[in-house]
Amino acid sequence: MIMGVLNITPDSFSDGGQHFDTADAIISAKQMIIQGADIIDIGGESTRPGAQAVSTSDEIDRVIPVIEALYRSTDIPISVDTSKPEVMELAVKAGASMINDVCALSADGALEVAAMLNVDVCLMHMQGSPRTMQQDPTYGDVVDDIKDFFSKRIEACIGAGIAEDKIILDPGFGFGKTLNHNLEILKRFDEFRSFGLPLLAGLSRKSMIGTLLDDRNVDGRVVGSVTGAIIAVQNGADIVRVHDVLETKDALTILGGVS
Ligand code: 7PJ
């Protein structure tokens, strides 16, 4: 499945400023639906390395009108990219059917709210916090350490009353990882299959792609991002979170033709 990214932030890493207006955001979302998106992921807080936190009320003002409008005007499943329980609750009331949390429901009250809302939850691994995570990420074995994290968070979810079949796992490319960590995770992605849960991969336009391409700027990372998505799917990813929906859909269609 393709998850199309819709950032409603003035400072997002790769499409900053483009989607700040609700009407524009809806146009972009509809475009992604036409291009083949299966889910739209709506976020109002930039989590790029070094990004500053956004207040709860600002985040609500950014994402809730877009979720309401998209829910009213399309049938597309909507995911909300947030770590704040207040935003989760309002987003689901507005029509979101999935919570995508880069903090894996670690905020105070997030587990309880997610359990009460009874929607799918994506638990992403991050080492540190967005402001500092790229300073000196260290692991024993990166894949094993992330698997330990998943085990603990799955246990916490089940303890809070979240059904195991609502959980999606994501190793969190670029979130407290060096290039080598990211490559190791991509190469060994299939090892996360051991949980028997759906896996999500988000590599789109990230710095690992830019770095491998000689510090290519964000606009020049489309082919690299699509290639990364294809490798992730071949290694067991069920959902890819992408900005370039049309290009990713084409590549996955060709992959599907031979598999
Ligand atoms: C991810 C995300 C990711 C999940 C972002 C960016 C940074 N959510 N939100 N996985 N990345 N689940 O798109 O570059 O990799 S924001």
Which helices and strands appear, and what pairs or packs with what?
Layout: E1 2-7, H1 22-35, E2 39-43, H2 56-73, E3 78-81, H3 85-94, E4 98-101, H4 110-117, E5 120-124, H5 142-160, E6 167-170, H6 179-187, E7 200-201, H7 207-212, H8 222-234, E8 239-242, H9 245-258
Parallel strand pairs: 1-2, 1-8, 2-3, 3-4, 4-5, 5-6, 7-8
Helix pairs in contact: 1-2, 2-3, 3-4, 8-9
Bound molecules: ligand 7PJ.
Key features of this structure:
single chain, 259 residues, alpha/beta, TIM Barrel, 8 strands, binds ligand 7PJ
Mean pLDDT: 94
> Judging from the principal axes of the Cα atoms, what is the shape?
globular
Order of helices and strands: EHEHEHEHEHEHEHHEH
Total domain units: 1
- Biggest sheet overview: 8 strands, parallel
Beginning-to-end CA distance, first to last residue: 15 Å
Q: Examine the coordinates and then state which fold CATH places here, giving the name of the CATH topology.
A: TIM Barrel
**Bound ligands:** ligand 7PJ
Our Rg estimate from Cα atoms comes to: 17 Å
Query: Approximately what portion of the residues adopt beta-strand conformation?
Result: 5-15%
How many helices? 9
The main sheet orders its strands as 6-5-4-3-2-1-8-7
